[in-house]
Design a protein that fits this description.
Order of helices and strands: HHHEEHEHHEEEEHEHEHEHH
Strand order of the largest sheet: 4-3-5-10-6-9-7-8
Radius of gyration: 20 Å
Strand content: 15-25%
Number of helices: 11
Number of strands: 10
Largest sheet: 8 strands, mixed
Distance between the termini: 47 Å
Shape: globular
Structural class: alpha/beta
């Protein structure tokens, strides 16, 4: 069961570190459990590479089945223990937003809503299998009620030591650029926004997920075009700095989504209202 729990949590959260935090063990223990499970099954569940891990096709299918199984076990256990008043809230959320924005605030949600067990998942279980979702986009969500959570800004960030010599955006020419493809705002759009040309933006290091690129930036591997919602904690603690003042308002934003039926349930309303209160508190602190 330890092997299965470790794998299910890592697959759902998209990282060994996230699973370790949830299960209160070390990332090394998560890695060992998953390796033992792979050896037992004779199948690779994760592809491992320098920038992190990614589920294999077999691993994704296995994780979806295990997720449903563990949800049933949790429900059965709650009934047997007489905790009928507790509710499970399943929310589909991007890995980086879950790790960088929600996870640091989870204790506040638990304190305000002790009878709601929050289950965050990066896996797409399909409509009807989650209660709500947080998505990055432009507000066009057919058949779902959408609440704007927070708008995004992009700007370069890097480790404090790496910032030495970055007096202006022109100095980026000699630096390694870190990329996270898939966003409308990339290095080309930010450089055009600040009026800089002649920098080769096709070179650098590329990452599938923002959380991988953020870790690389913290370790001094280059300059990342950071997104405000995902790097606020690292900026506040000094792990990252913003060497330039110029920021670019993102075309997309983070939205809270639910079907009309789910949107009326008390647990979904509670989580949505808590999220908006956290956004307002963060904006008040920044302002």
């Amino acid at each position: 069961m330890n092997w299965l729990r470790a794998f299910e949590a890592a697959a759902r959260l998209g990282s060994f570190a996230g699973a370790a935090s949830e299960l209160n063990v070390t990332p090394s223990a998560i890695s060992q459990h998953i390796r033992a499970l792979e050896l037992r099954l004779g199948k690779e569940l994760f592809d491992r590479h320098a920038n992190g891990v990614r589920l294999t096709d077999r691993g994704r299918l296995y994780a979806e089945d295990l997720g449903r199984a563990f949800a049933l076990i949790d429900e059965a256990t709650a009934k047997l223990a007489g905790r009928g008043t507790r509710e499970m809230l399943v929310v589909h959320v991007p890995t980086s937003f879950a790790s960088q924005w929600i996870a640091p605030r989870l204790d506040l949600f638990r304190a305000q809503h002790p009878t709601i067990d929050l289950r965050l998942t990066a896996l797409d279980h399909g409509e009807g299998k989650v209660d709500a979702a947080i998505e990055f986009g432009w507000g066009n969500w057919p058949k779902r009620e959408a609440t704007l959570l927070l708008r995004d800004e992009t700007f370069p960030v890097c480790a404090p030591k790496y910032a030495a010599g970055l007096a202006s955006p022109n100095d980026l020419q000699a630096r390694n650029l870190l990329h996270v493809p898939g966003y409308a705002e990339d290095w080309d759009t930010w450089l055009a926004h600040v009026g800089v040309s002649g920098i080769d933006t096709s070179a650098g290091s590329f990452f599938d997920q923002s959380i991988m690129a953020i870790r690389a930036a913290i370790e001094g591997k280059g300059v990342l075009l950071g997104r405000s919602a995902l790097v606020e904690r690292e900026l506040a603690t000094g792990l990252l700095v913003a060497p330039f003042e110029q920021r670019l308002r993102g075309a997309g934003s983070y939205w809270f989504l639910a079907t009309p039926q789910k949107a009326k349930t008390p647990k979904v309303i509670a989580f949505r209202d808590w999220l908006t209160s956290m956004v307002q508190a963060s904006e008040t602190a920044d302002g």
